[in-house]
Amino acid sequence: MRHSRLARLLLVLAALSYLAVARASLAQPTSARAPITERLAELRRIHTPRGVERLEAVTIGGVSQWINVRGKDARAPVIVMIHGGPGTPTLPTAWAYQAPWEDFFTVVHYDQRGVGKNAVGTDREALAPTLTFDRLVQDAEEVVGWVRRELGVERVVVMGYSYGTAIGLALAERKPEWISAYVGVGQVSAGGDAYLYPRLLELARERNDTTALRELQSIAPYPRPGAPMSSILLTRKWARQFDGGWYGKPTFDLLFALPEWAPEYTDADVAAQIPATQFASRALVGSARPPLPEHASVPVVIIQGLHDLHTPYAPARAWFDRLQAPHKRFVTLEHSAHVPFLEEPGRFLQALLTEVMPLAQRSR
Fold it and tell me: CA-based, 20 to 30 A from 42: which of 51, 71, 171, 252?
């Protein structure tokens, strides 16, 4: 009898367990991304006692902007990443390269107004007049102010990427007392397009690429005031073909696919990203920005891919050589182009530890 009761009890427990699993299974999202993003989220989970892992919408400049904060020790120096594009967030690609940074730094990404996680539900018509370079600099200042309050730090490292390098330098001029160092990755420079166009023609001739020559010559003279977006996109297409985007890859297809597996992004966020980026790019490409400074009040570290043609290496190096700063260092990654943190992640981390970490520690 006792065995019979035990058997019935085990059957009941088994049934309850099955029902619990079934309910959990039914509660799971049906998205095809879910099996990947859930595992990536668990793989990247911060478990350390002093770790920080935050993802939240914050009102910046009167609109909602999502901020992501990650690090193994909240006492570590803080890097605030300012993405480029315009309108191409780094937050949804960070899962692919950032984990080693988080052993040494607390890393902050934010999606700029109207793009990334901010795109869903955004009234683009109302937002469009605010999409200016000056407004993005003000937003960056507000984000750094939020970081200083929330994380209790006096200074942060500002890392600008691509178009974000212009924003980062402008912020460093406005608030040098908040910034321990400025780091430029894919540094923009005066005359970048003036250098790029003849260089692309030169590469096309060297490779006897008649298609490239025909398409590039069709937009001459370039660059010119009021050049259409299609001309800019054409030069970037051939920059990638000629190893100037992701060294060894002729397109950015993989780079643009990375957000599909971002744990921080919902299906709706992923679906909205490309239209939002196109909208922001068109709005911002004509927005005037000041010339790059020839003097900096903060230490400057540039990490540049040798083969970069999106923000060409040679004029970036020429600007750096003219720059006056209390401390400056130019790091060349020889097997990289425009995305060195993905192309040479080990050497990129080495540059952060040897060139940036001492400046950040000194500021704390």
Answer: 252
Count CB atoms within 10 A of the CB of residue 50.
11
Q: What is the dihedral of CA 141, 142, 146, 148, to 10 degrees?
A: 20
Distance CA 119, CA 286 (A): 21
Q: Give strand ranges (E) for the chain.
A: 52-60, 63-71, 78-82, 106-110, 156-161, 179-185, 300-305, 328-333
Could you tell me which of 155, 24, 174, 169 has the C-alpha nearest to residue 77?
A: 155
* DSSP state string for 167-205: HHHHHHHH-GGGEEEEEEES---TTHHHHHHHHHHHHHH
Q: How far is Cα 276 from Cα 268, in angstroms, rounded to an integer?
A: 12
Q: What is the tens place of the pLDDT at every residue in 225-250?
A: 877 888 989 999 999 999 999 999 99
pLDDT in the model for residue 8: 39
pLDDT of residue 7: 37
- At 82, which amino acid appears? I
- C-alpha distances (whole Å) from 188 to each of 50, 84, 168, 271, 289 are 36, 10, 11, 29, 12
Question: Does residue 28 surpass a pLDDT of 60?
Answer: no
H or E, element range at 355: none
The pLDDT value recorded for residue 83 is: 97
Q: Which residues contact 118 (CB under 8 A, 6 or more apart)?
A: 57, 63, 64, 65, 66, 111, 112, 276
